[in-house]
Amino acid sequence: LEKSSVRKANSTLCSIALIVPSVVCLTLYFSTISYPGVKTCYIQHHHPPVWHWPFRVRYRLERGVCTDKYEIPAFWRITDPFSLKHMSSTTMSSGLATPNFLSTLRVHQCKKWLWLSLEPPMNNHNLSNYNSLFNWTMRYHRDADIFMPYGELVSKRTNATFIIPKKSNCLVCWAVSKYKANQSRSLVFQQLNKHIPSKLIEVYGQRSKRLLSNKNLLSTISRCYFYLAFENSISTDYITEKLWRNSLQAGSVPVVLGPPRNIYELSIPPESFIHVNDFSSIKALATFLSQVADNRERYESYFRWHNYCDVRMYTDWRERLCNICMLYNDLYSWVNR
């Protein structure tokens, strides 16, 4: 639609800022303009250096992207029709609000602003300047206005039989990009390393100076019996690709460290993973892992969920944005609640 058409239309126009802690912001325009068989969900973004797609990766918003690429019903259509000149002075830096950005939020009080962050609290910096400015949240928290996990299990769509990858002598595998000795995950690993022979442990990343390319990540992990899906922060509902991709998709049983077991069980079967907190000591955990690896029937039981489910990862920001339109078919009621 032309800008003039939107201005003249009898519609409710609202703006949602999607912000990630690393210099990211998008603005969405949701319009309830009715046309034969279609409603339109507008996405607006400015060219760098003002507004950016998350992590500075820009995606094409071709017509029908929600339906064609992600099978999200075409009740809403996602497009990129125009930009607003009055937003051109808005800036952000390192996830902290600048005066220009805060003033923009406060001036445009008729807008609806949404906070989006997939990071744990420790990476969100000081958010106190944003108090009372945002209307909704979109993140991995289950109590967010829009729940957006890193991944999920979906019903299996084919009759293909899952074959457990062939294992090598590797009992435990861990790929860690930012190793910090004082983190909970590092302390657990250090203890685990005392009770499992070093020849049975494979560690990849800067710490071990064994770099692993993204292309070889899953195939390498798949050779190991267990993968240490240790989150870098223990936070409510914070379960990342370490579980979904590095473990479940790779075909290695996840040993998790993160939220409590009952939180994981909201997303995956209780018999599909091993939780560090299930054991009285790390030595007991190490013993258990060795016992399970030596018992083929018991080990294979951790993969039974593959008979019914597949892993679905959320990695494309367009899909996340499309989910806003899917979740709120009655967008007018949601915006005006």
From TrEMBL:
Q: Does the keyword DNA-binding apply?
A: no
What residue stretches are annotated with the Fucosyltransferase N-terminal domain? 108-151
Compartments reported by the entry: Golgi apparatus, Golgi stack membrane; Membrane
**Ranges that cross the membrane:** 12-31
What domain of life is recorded for the organism?
A: Eukaryota
Q: In which pathway does it act?
A: Protein modification; protein glycosylation
Q: What is its EC number?
A: 2.4.1.-
Q: What keywords appear on the UniProt entry?
A: Glycoprotein, Glycosyltransferase, Golgi apparatus, Membrane, Signal-anchor, Transferase, Transmembrane, Transmembrane helix
Fucosyltransferase C-terminal domain ranges (all copies): 168-327
- What would be one Gene Ontology cellular-component term for the protein? Golgi cisterna membrane
Which family does the entry's similarity section mention?
Belongs to the glycosyltransferase 10 family.
Report the protein name in the record: Fucosyltransferase
Q: What's the name of its gene?
A: LOC107730704
